[in-house]
Automatic annotation (TrEMBL), chain A:
Alphabetical list of InterPro entries matching this protein: DNA_Rep/Repair_Clamp_Loader, P-loop_NTPase
Origin species: Bombilactobacillus thymidiniphilus
PANTHER family: DNA POLYMERASE III SUBUNIT DELTA, REPLICATION FACTOR C / DNA POLYMERASE III GAMMA-TAU SUBUNIT
Source superkingdom: Bacteria
Name this protein carries in UniProt: DNA polymerase III subunit delta
From TrEMBL, chain B:
NCBIfam families: dnaX_nterm (TIGR02397), PRK05563.1 (NF004046)
Family per record: Belongs to the DnaX/STICHEL family.
Enzyme Commission (EC) number: 2.7.7.7
GO MF, any single term: DNA-directed DNA polymerase activity
Cited Pfam families: DNA_pol3_delta2 (PF13177), DNA_pol3_gamma3 (PF12169), DNAX_ATPase_lid (PF22608)
Protein name: DNA-directed DNA polymerase
Region annotation (Disordered) ranges: 398-421
InterPro entries with a match to the protein in the record: AAA+_ATPase (IPR003593), ClpA/B (IPR001270), DNA_pol3_clamp-load_cplx_C (IPR008921), DNA_pol_III_gamma-3 (IPR022754), DNA_pol_III_sug/sutau_N (IPR012763), DNA_Rep/Repair_Clamp_Loader (IPR050238), HLD_clamp_pol_III_gamma_tau (IPR045085), P-loop_NTPase (IPR027417)
Domain of life assignment: Bacteria
Compositionally biased region (Basic residues): 412-421
PANTHER family the record matches: PROTEIN STICHEL-LIKE 2, REPLICATION FACTOR C / DNA POLYMERASE III GAMMA-TAU SUBUNIT
Encoding gene, per UniProt annotation: dnaX
Family matches, as SMART domains: AAA (SM00382)
Amino acid sequence: MTIVQEQPQITAELAKTITTQHVVHAYLFTGSNQAQVQRVGIWFMQALFCPHAKEGYPCLQCNFCQRIQNNDFPDVLTLATDKKSLGVDDIREAKRELEQTSVEASGRILLIKQAEKLTTSAANSLLKFLEDPVGKVTALLLTKSVIAVLPTIQSRVQILSLADSVDTNLQVDLQEKGYSDNDLTIIQQAHLEDELMANIAGDKFKQLKQVAQTWVQQLAHNPWQAFIAVSTTILPAVENRLQQQLLLSLMEWYFSQQLNQAVDDHVKLQWAKQITMAFLHAKQLWTANVSLQNSLEQLALQATNLSKRG
Amino acid sequence: MAYQALYRVWRPQTFEDVTGQSAITQTLKNAVATDQVSHAYLFTGSRGTGKTSCAKILAKAVNCPQQQAGEPCNQCAICQAINAGSLNDVLEIDAASNNGVEQIRDIRDKVKYAPTQAEYKVYIIDEVHMLSTGAFNALLKTLEEPPAKVIFILATTEPQKIPATIISRTQRFDFRRIPTSDLIARMEFILKEKELDYDVKGVQLIAQAAQGGMRDALSMLDQALALDLQKLTLANALQVTGALDEQQLVAYFQAVFIKDAAKSLQNLHDIMNSGRSALRFCDSVIEVARDLLLTKSDPNLIDAAQSLVLPETLMQLQEQVTKQQLYTIITQVSQTQQDLKNADRPLIYLEVLTVQLVEAMQPAPAVEGTDTSADLQVKELQQKITSLQEQVTALQNDEVKETKPMASTTSKKVKPAPKNKAVHVDQVKINQILQQATRKALNQVQDCWPDLMSMLNVTQKAVMKVSKPVAASADGVIVAFDYAVWFERVMSNQEMMTMLKTNLDRLLQNDADVILVAAEDWPKIRQKFLQNHEMPIAAPDDPQEKQATSNLVEQAQNLFGTDLVEVKHD
């Protein structure tokens, strides 16, 4: 299934701006599924440069389209990082390069993946560039959350958000890796697509899902047991930070389920709310580099306090 | 890519064009017209309020040879060159990428050269808050006294990051958010210029969502127009701003107000599934809560605040909430808004928020008295109090049992009495000591007391700090303790007692025992001794003796002067 079929609305809008020549100099694409956002980004670049485009839709066959797809096109400058942040030096270098005129196409494109990773100074040094780029440059920012982007950047770009849709490519891919249909539904509902970009095998996913589910239940019924389970079952199950991320996202999903199921019982709802808030706090701690063990153990201790009071 | 965004095309070119900042533009115009332009300006204000535009216009106005009443002509070669960004004497510097000391030094070096084409050399330093501290300080001297014909214009969205020393050297202008009515007027003007049809409600909606930023408004307008080139429709405006459908919002609020958690969560999911952004959702909830609050306070306020008129159905809801509840709603939503910044998936935060809001709607605990958290706390506290009371009575009973035998009979039964015993034993010895006690001995002991203290270790010293010798004879020293607790403790500490004795004996070179008493008991003990022995003691003697010596001393002092006479107590 192509990206046009998956995201008919946004691609139609973009195609229209191309045919009516209303393409502005800066866009921000946002959506919960990073892989999909990137594919829209690539599709838009192909649409801009493809010499055989029909009504704004690229042919996807020609030399240009192929090379853009393979990230091998000289007039597209991609900024992406595996590190935690994109710094001001990367931006400076990019700006210097973009001052040169295009080699093959009619203009140049700056593609920034995961724009939420831009540091404050990097984002600030983009401001002037985004407002008045020198020459024919189109900036394309991709991010999973608009809020994480500087407000002064937001006001300089056109923000397009992707509708939620099934990422069939990912599903096929995951099925091959041995994910069950049941798992796929959870993945789709909980928006776990981003976490799964990092090759996690089907069995591992199943294991993590099991661990997350039992732990969330334990927390409700026997918090002390849950405290111990952190070091006995959770820690052995996760191998790296990506898996930790997946585990926490799964837990988040189960907490959310718990909250939604408790709506009819006032006391239960109260508890579900408090434990979910505690969990969100623990997750924030984890994001701020507190170890998984510490954040979860603290959560378990809080749960014991909560159940004592209840 | 020939198309230019609306906000770039419609960037104001004269002071007259700048919307919503009449006070500032008038001041600048007057300054230019009367030739009183300062050498340094600081423009601050939130995004899209016209800081950079004003800076550029000012640069043109001071340099334009044909300026009229402070406005640039935009016709002459210089104005055109500045518009194109090609005039050497107007430098626009992006402080965010050139934020080091090196770059500022570069400016400082070049500032000395006179302008080449224009009359003034203008430095526009945009995003100036990103300069490093070193860079700011390097700029200070230049900013205070630049060479003639140089103007600095600093622009920033975050004035709180600018050092006070910079602010005090500049003329500061605060650009306020552009009122919604001005945004609407400007957008309508642009739409008319472009000869496009528009829906008034759509324009209003965009203006509302722009929150006082012209650039935001024009960006959104641009985007909405890209969807439909002929007409700005309300539907497109809704889509672009991500604003909530009124009906959805009303349904959500109704569910919250009737405290139906299940239904409000359902409504929340509906809203989020229709592709609304979490942030907009929070904004809308706060706006509605604010409007309800205003209507409750005074219905006329709403018009003054220029908000979009709430639908009637929502207005009727105001009966169901108290002001206090609305305050709680607003605080909790804005708290969640903060949290959302770090969230990967906003939905769970909004779910928690919804449950919180439903809870906030619960009436005060006194009325229903079921399970609200405050109620729980009260219960808990009550329980605690009763258990404490029980403990206290239990303790009292115990005490009565304990004290009875002590008070009535001195039987051997319950003896918590190292104290009693010690005092009893002491009495004989004390009497012995007191019989032979002399002032001299006491003075001796008092003299060497500090030495004794210094022989003890820190903890012992701390204990003995509350004690002092009160009486002494050749074979004994009585030491009184200020607090009975310490006294008992030292008494029971055999090691310390021997240590005190041996050390004291070494200092005094005799074989004196150390007897401890509590200071509060001391007068009683002495009284007892005096009654028993009926003998003249040292104390009454002392004054006479003292008087005699003091007479002698006085005479001696008269003879030799105070400096030479050393009074020695024997």
